[in-house]
Amino acid sequence: PKLVTAATIGLLSLGLAACGSGGGEGGGHKTVFKLAVSQTEEHPQYQAGIELGKRLEEVTDGRYSVQVFGNETLGTSTEVIQNVSDGTVAFMWCGGANVESLNEDFVVYNLPFVFDSMEAQLAVLNDEELNHELFTSLEESKSITVLSGVHAGQRSMYNSKRPIRTPADLQGLKIRVQQSDSQVRMLEMLGGVPSPMSFGEVYSALQTGVLDGAENNEPSFDSMKHDEVAKYYSYTRHLMIPDFLLMSTTVLDDMNEADRQALLDLIPEISAKASADFVPYVEESIENAEELGVQFNDDVDTEAFKELVAPMVDEYMSANALRTDMYTAIKQANEENPAA
Length: 340
Ligand code: GCU
Hints:
Blueprint: H1 6-14, E1 24-27, E2 30-36, H2 44-59, E3 64-69, H3 77-86, E4 91-95, H4 96-99, H5 118-125, H6 128-136, H7 139-142, E5 144-150, E6 155-159, H8 167-170, E7 174-177, H9 181-190, E8 193-196, H10 202-207, E9 213-216, H11 218-223, E10 232-239, E11 243-248, H12 249-254, H13 257-291, E12 295-297, H14 302-317, H15 321-336
Parallel strand pairs: 2-3, 2-4, 7-8, 7-9, 10-12
Antiparallel strand pairs: 1-2, 4-11, 5-11, 6-9, 6-10
The structure holds alpha-D-glucopyranuronic acid (GCU).
């Protein structure tokens, strides 16, 4: 992918990016990039990070490798975004909603009931030309390059009180959402009480009853142990938000051209693996949750939920030309890749 823009070439020629150990512990000739992921070691994104390290070491004759840090050990997403921006962390897997705080146009990926299938979502995410402006939009202001976006499941509602079937069931429930305007607004329109907080804080908030519930994909529900506390998982399937692989633009520019290209060439394969491996991970997570006594219900009036947020989707999607273009592409991808 042609991700290095005129702006970053400008930086290079000024020599601003030519110092430092490349976001990792530079030992001898080897640079170890840090990759941060908020998920556990079993998560496909953690595993894809390990794979990226192996492959990168091969293709750069050992000049570069990757150390993966899971479980938010390097900090919350908001904190790590800052580290990627200042170049002390080379890579992170970042939830789409968090990227919205850097450029609100990322909202096109974060709106409810917009993607009909995983295939449609991936068709849009993998369209390099379509995403070029968005994916390079943070380079100048934040020194962050978006390398790719991957499938990260469908998000549904879960809580400790009752199954959700209609919007009335959600009324008054205090639900954690991701920290972005679109997510807060979505939950308000669906009738719940939104409580934005970072991923790692949700478990104890559920446990202490500060929250009645949250909304997430099955793997996060299970791996973060939310299923120990919230026993009702209701298939609202209201969101399909991707995760993005972010890289420090400074660190990327700091590599010699051949190594940088070798790294960029690995990204499609690594990203495809993260997306594909998510599917069986969902099944395992459902089994684990069921063993803990979780009640999954699929008898949800999704049309009713969809109607409530339709005005909001239209408003966000029509805010500027980039968004209307992306929305057109999304609708076309849905037509070509309908729900199973
Ligand atoms: C999912 C998603 C993460 C996101 C998390 C959250 O796990 O993959 O990127 O951070 O949800 O709800 O915060």
